[in-house]
Write a structure and sequence with these properties.
mainly alpha, globular, 12 helices, about 70% helix
Length: about 180
């Protein structure tokens, strides 16, 4: 649910926890904790906060997009999943969109989340992120032969039915492939 500042103030009162402060504490905890479980939990929370546009300015200021992008190459599959989920939630915001598109390595790391070793949720969030990143201006940067090949592999892997269905839709919508 999207929230307005007025709604948050009504719900938590004027003296409630400041959201920007709370988010900064989460980022600090993510960056300093030694516990992998705590890292997972914090990144999942940040990904959830990324869903609501009211948080986008604060998340931008805290450079949370970098946490999400760095998570894509983490060895922990849940960190990867929460990172790409955060990107899916935040990538439509113009500054975040432009930043994610600014470096080919970011797009490549998102595409790498379509690897057969990744979870169904990771693949679905990666496809969602890629679909949301596509514009008329960057169409050719995203819709590469490599991406098409990975999508075909996912579509043909019926073990992960949700990912297979989403890959089929992606192929039809962006590559005009029905077979």
């Amino acid at each position: 649910m999207f929230q307005s500042k007025e709604y948050i103030e009504r719900r938590h009162g004027r003296s409630g926890t400041d959201r920007a402060y709370f988010l900064s504490q989460l980022v600090q905890e993510y960056n300093t904790t030694k516990s992998q479980e705590a890292k997972r939990q914090v990144l999942a929370n940040l990904a959830n906060f990324a869903y609501d546009p009211i948080n986008h300015d604060t998340l931008w200021g805290l450079r949370v997009v970098d946490l999400f992008l760095n998570a894509l190459t983490d060895n922990d599959i849940l960190i990867q999943e929460f990172g790409v989920g955060g990107l899916a939630n935040i990538c439509l915001e113009p500054r975040h969109h432009e930043y994610i598109m600014s470096q080919p390595i970011y797009r490549n790391n998102i595409i790498d989340c379509l690897d057969s070793s990744c979870s169904t949720n990771t693949k679905i969030n990666a496809m969602t992120t890629l679909m949301q990143l596509i514009t008329d201006e960057n169409y050719n940067l995203i819709l590469t032969n490599e991406l098409e090949k990975r999508l075909l592999e996912i579509r043909n892997d019926h073990q992960q039915k949700q990912a297979s269905t989403m890959a089929a839709l992606f192929l039809v919508d962006y590559y005009q492939r029905n077979n």
